[in-house]
UniProtKB/TrEMBL annotation:
This is Myb transcription factor. It comes from Quillaja saponaria. InterPro entries: Homeodomain-like_sf (IPR009057), Myb_dom (IPR017930), Plant_SW-associated_TFs (IPR051953), SANT/Myb (IPR001005). The keyword Repeat applies. SMART domains: SANT (SM00717). Keywords: DNA-binding, Nucleus, Repeat, Transcription, Transcription regulation.
DNA sequence: AAGGTTCGCAACCGCAAAAGC
DNA sequence: AGCTTTTGCGGTTGCGAACCT
């Protein structure tokens, strides 16, 4: 028992790889590639199963891997993306060039998780642990009376939102934020390219670069249709439908009134400033990292209509 | 110094999706 | 269309190193 299901007939070596085995694998793959992992062990002269070879290559031998400890920037990206995606390590790793899903997962389990816990945050939801009852309340709201949502299905109309972790007056947020499903992420660029004095600390400026992070993050989600809409995530189909997202009841995130902000930012940044200046105690950085999306579809009235068609399920 | 405990990481396992036939 | 094989993923385990008592 305990053998690999993929190679039960062969006698295969297990456990740590020796330098000789590594060398054989590297040599074989650099010379011939890996058309089929199941045939790699035989062709490379290794007493391993294909799965083991693949894992060794992907997680350790690939030349484009970045070894060494994670930088603070990388850590922040992991936290931010995890907040949106949960334990989708492979997806998270795509935001970190040179890192593998296994590496990210190990780093999370050994380091980040503990940090979050020690900061009083639930590593699953990223919410304050003491606020978990509020989350429950929010979940119940989402479950309740779905038929009411149709009559009020604009993301900008929902005012039943209380931001986590904030000392700011509630009305500020009622005025400026709407709830979005965690899956409905929208890309903002940071305020780096702008005169940041016009914006509260951490406030996002919706702009040309559709990346939250200057590096590789690219997101977004365009629902293909209202029913069973599949979402496009980082250029690849996201694994769920809108309905599934709703069922998941992941962390509810908040967003600026996207279209209003875009329009205001284009013409009149002071409007933004004045509407946020009372809320300086709110951690806008949370928003910055959570909200990601391609706003190219949001720069006119038609895109406003576009968003308003969504079956927002608040 | 020795034994026990914790930590970090590489590797394994089982499952599901995708691909091939 | 249905079965088999392959691939990819997330959870978990096992082991060596570091740390603690």
């Amino acid at each position: 028992m305990g053998g690999h299901s993929c190679c039960s007939k062969q006698k295969v070596k297990r456990g740590l790889w020796s330098p000789e085995e590594d060398e054989k694998l590297i040599k074989h793959i650099t010379n011939h590639g890996h058309q089929s992992w199941s045939s790699v062990p035989r062709l490379a002269g290794l007493q391993r199963c294909g799965k083991s070879c693949r894992l060794r290559w992907v997680n350790y031998l690939r030349p484009d891997l970045k070894r060494g400890s994670f930088s603070a920037e990388e850590e922040q990206i992991i936290i931010d993306v995890h907040r949106i995606l949960g334990n989708r390590w492979a997806q998270i790793a795509k935001h970190l060039p040179g890192r593998t899903d296994n590496e990210v997962k190990n780093f999370w389990n050994s380091c980040v998780k503990k940090k979050l816990i020690s900061n009083g945050l639930d590593p699953k939801t990223h919410n304050l642990i003491s606020n978990s009852h509020n989350n429950q309340r929010t979940s119940n709201i989402n479950k309740a009376a779905p038929e009411n949502k149709k009559s009020n299905n604009s993301i900008f109309n929902n005012l039943d939102f209380q931001p986590e972790n904030s000392n700011a007056p509630l009305e500020i947020f009622n005025k400026n934020f709407a709830k979005l499903p965690a899956s409905c992420t929208t890309t903002f660029s940071t305020s780096g390219s702008h005169d940041s004095t016009n914006f509260p600390n951490g406030l996002l400026m919706i702009e040309d670069t559709p990346n939250v992070y200057s590096s590789s993050t690219s997101t977004i989600l365009n629902p293909a249709s209202l029913e069973n809409c599949m979402w496009d995530f980082s250029g690849e189909p996201f694994e769920g439908t809108m309905h599934e997202f709703q069922q998941k009841e992941q962390e509810i995130t908040c967003a600026t009134r996207i279209i209003d902000r875009v329009n205001e930012a284009k013409g009149c940044p002071e409007t933004i400033n004045s509407s946020f200046d009372q809320s300086s105690s709110f951690d806008f950085g949370i928003l910055e990292s959570v909200l990601t999306s391609d706003l190219s579809c949001c720069d006119d009235q038609s895109s406003m209509d576009y968003y308003d068609q969504f079956p927002w399920n608040f």
